């Protein structure tokens, strides 16, 4: 088969450390399941600003448009935090998502056995946690009109939260399709008691739901959802919500799994091409030390096999290998109970590769 073209965008902070491990696991999975890769490096974020004065250089965008899948680390960091809006690393992520029309961001939250003790929550609350946040990714307050102006009351800053019916319908539909092959439950999260855009969201969700009689739909206001998510997390199956609510709720969800260093994501559009990246950021506080948890990135590679290559067996092999490594007690600092037991980023990546070679699917 033709090699899969991968746009490889390590980015800033811990990005290069974790994507190295992701690529390692991707290649090992390829060897076992019959894939070859053409991996093309691209600058993005702060490192692209420093080199090319552009957070999302044209050549990087072209690379991504020609690729079968994009593997991304993270962007951002303190040295660029005072930059003007056009020269901010985060601008690259938003631009890439928009340019590739990746409107559906899937953020699965599952608890690996043995990590209950890494979480700050009680083990019994965490039993059976297995849900998926479907976050709208190319609309809402991130992409509405924004500006600042001088007024008699001083500077005034505006962000606008806009959704069209078409935008809501396609993301809600995606959530229902996913729920059909999961446990058949969609929770739509909004702020319909206050926001006009949320009232539209809820109306569209109700209408789309009629086409999926096998899926149960309920609604939660976002503040209540934030609370229920840590009170009875095992009750959730698919959560569908707008861009910023999804951003916030998914970091909260990370704590159910034990660490933000474990949560992967897939960003998808209508086609096969996807962007795969951890939910966490560039972690400037630990960058360059070789201690970051690579598992969120490795699990993002599993999602790449599942959603871009339609290879569930390969995805399951990676997830199974991660499960085995965690069961063996291997931990990076963020998951370990004492620092002296912690392994490096590279050691954990190597262990996943070893486990992948030995992994046997359930008969
Ligand atoms: P962050 O997710 O980078 O870090 C939050 C905390 O979690 C830090 O203490 C960090 O050390 C820890 N952490 C994160 N990932 C980890 C990992 N793999 N292993 C171990 N610990 C990990 O969030 P932040 O500090 O709010 O943001 C830092 C920068 O990252 C900002 O510039 C932000 O804009 C950017 N960011 C980028 C992305 C992305 O590229 N997708 C996502 C979120 C934040
Ligand atoms: C994420 C990040 C990004 C977002 C930032 C860095 C633009 O927090 O991917 O969750 O808010 O979408
Ligand atoms: Mn985020």
TrEMBL record:
Q: What is its EC number?
A: 1.1.1.85
Cite the entry's keywords alphabetically. Answer: Amino-acid biosynthesis, Branched-chain amino acid biosynthesis, Cytoplasm, Leucine biosynthesis, Magnesium, Manganese, Metal-binding, NAD, Oxidoreductase
In Gene Ontology terms, what is one molecular function of this protein? NAD binding
Q: Which residues bind substrate?
A: 97, 107, 135, 223
Q: What is its main location?
A: cytoplasm
Name the residues annotated as site: Important for catalysis: 142, 191
Ranges where the Isopropylmalate dehydrogenase-like domain occurs: 5-352
Task: Give the pathway listed in the UniProt entry for this protein.
Answer: Amino-acid biosynthesis; L-leucine biosynthesis; L-leucine from 3-methyl-2-oxobutanoate: step 3/4
Q: Looking at the UniProt record for this protein, which Gene Ontology cellular component terms does it annotate, in alphabetical order?
A: cytosol
Q: What is this protein called?
A: 3-isopropylmalate dehydrogenase
Q: Which gene encodes it?
A: leuB
